Here is the input.
Amino acid sequence: MPELSSYLVIGAVAKLFIPGKNPAGCIFTILLGIAGAILGTMLSLLLGFGHRVGLLGAILCAMGLLLIYRVVIDKR
Here is the structure.
């Protein structure tokens, strides 16, 4: 499983792929990215895809969490 610094990078990469203004602050965005990266890595490893696909899964899951947060906040 990757280290915390890897999760920070994955969270930052996920944020780069999501266009537009982010309603969350920098710290909360990083935390959402880390949570998505951890979740994506765990899911890909549980499904037996390995670490290389785990990286892609971590980025996609982090992007998903960031998008879900944006949709929920925009509806308020």
Residues 4-15+23-75 form one domain. The radius of gyration is 12 Å. The chain has one domain: 4-15+23-75. The chain has a mean pLDDT of 78.
